[in-house]
């Protein structure tokens, strides 16, 4: 700390300056030391826990529980959040809508004193999300929470800025109870960056195993990789590739608005009809390759698929078609 003193005679000015410098330095040391000590206490950990819980509860309208928060004061400073749980909507099959085993926040820990938080990197480990479409006639259409606006709570975070978000070993469970369709993606990895001025989130996602079940037919496995961009209310998918034995599919388009689940995608596929025969348990002969170029549009559980297909040759039972 440094102050300038302009009062008093010349012979007393130097003495006053020395006193102010010494006193100011002592105050700074005391404040800095106390703040550094407080960062590692259970009181500060409780403040961070409260800020995150209240922010998520206010925005999602769901109960949010955090098991523990730990502050690491050594460089680089970290906040480690363990066992985060977000409750499911009433009537959901799963107990939780989302869980996260651990979140590690690196850099900018001191900003948790403020309502606007700026951190360097967020690592999300072992997250799980359960997305459900409810049966016809249910009170809710789906269990995905809407991001709410309204009066802010005392400890609510106003804005979160970060440099990079990395997801490892994620899981996504999709259950359409209206059409009896299920999909489970495991070991999901994703890396996301933010452009603060544009409020733009952009990243990549991949999963070595996506298992899909269509009603009572045979489940089939796919690999997933692709890119995405998110701006407030709009999720854009860039060439999400799904590949498996006898199946190659590419999906691009957007969900707009996300809160209503309104989507418009271009879906292209190359299918081996022998694989289609296995999945749908067709007993008669079915062979050849088929290419589809379609548009998939809908809202939540309802959809419309339009487009065309081509096949150079199809063998079906005793018939053979060429075109």
Residue runs with pLDDT of under 50 for 5 or more positions: 1-41
Taking the sheet with the most strands, its summary is: 15 strands, mixed
- Radius of gyration (CA) equals 28 Å
Strand/helix succession: HHEEEEEEEEEEEHEEEE
Helix content: 10-25%
**Quaternary structure state of the chains depicted:** single chain
How much of the sequence is in beta strands? over 45%
Fill in the keyword field for this structure.
3 helices; 17% helix; 323 residues; disordered N terminus; 15 strands; 15-stranded mixed beta sheet; alpha+beta
In short:
The chain is α+β, with helices and mostly antiparallel strands. The chain contains three helices and 15 strands.
What does this protein structure show overall?
There is one protein chain. By secondary structure, the protein is α+β, with helices and mostly antiparallel strands. It has helices at residues 10-39, 42-60, 273-279; strands spanning 64-72, 78-87, 96-106, 116-133, 159-176, 181-195, 200-214, 220-231, 234-244, 247-255, 262-272, 286-299, 302-310, 313-316, 319-322. It has a 15-stranded mixed sheet that branches. Strand 5 (159-176) and strand 6 form a beta hairpin. The longest helix has 30 residues, at 10-39. The protein is elongated. The N and C termini lie far apart (84 Å).
